[in-house]
Design a protein that fits this description.
Layout lengths: L9 E9 L5 E8 L5 H6 L9 E2 L9 H5 L11 E9 L10 H9 L3 H13 L18
Antiparallel strand pairs: 1-2, 1-4, 3-4
């Protein structure tokens, strides 16, 4: 009988960003390793108001940063948790493991989320992306 190796399950964390003008970006990160059902159910208990988080506090990249958006007056640091599930997909590069992600999340509370948001407010704005180009074309 052949020695078949069963692939290790990983964890897909789905989330999205919605700015004040309702522009949306959707994303997911594949974390190496699987979480138990109990661990998956505990995720929302540690998010700000049960659904919001700041990616940098969990070792993830913000979706507007990944897209190269400039920060505008409608932007904020909070992303919204969508779902978490097992997957056979390969882990995302530079993503934390599922256990590293979970430990960072379990360490958070409302005060720490608010502190992370105030730190985001102090970061300098970027000069490339969504609104950095001068309008051009026949409609000016």
């Amino acid at each position: 009988m052949e020695n078949l190796k069963v692939p290790e399950k990983n964890t897909a964390f789905h989330y999205y960003y919605r700015d004040g003008s309702n522009y949306k970006l959707f994303g997911k990160v594949i974390l190496q390793g699987a979480l138990t059902t109990e661990e998956k159910l505990s995720v929302s208990k540690h998010l700000y108001n049960g659904e919001f988080f700041i990616p940098s506090a969990l070792g993830l990249e913000s979706l507007p940063d990944a897209e190269g958006w400039d920060r505008g007056p409608d932007d904020h640091p909070f992303h919204t948790f969508d779902e978490i599930e097992d997957t056979d997909l390969k882990p995302s590069s530079d993503a934390p493991t599922a256990q590293e992600f979970l430990q960072k999340l379990l360490n958070m509370n409302a005060i720490k989320w608010e502190k992370a948001a105030s730190e985001w407010d102090k970061e300098p704005s970027r000069e490339t992306g969504r609104f950095s180009q001068e309008p051009s074309g026949p409609f000016l």
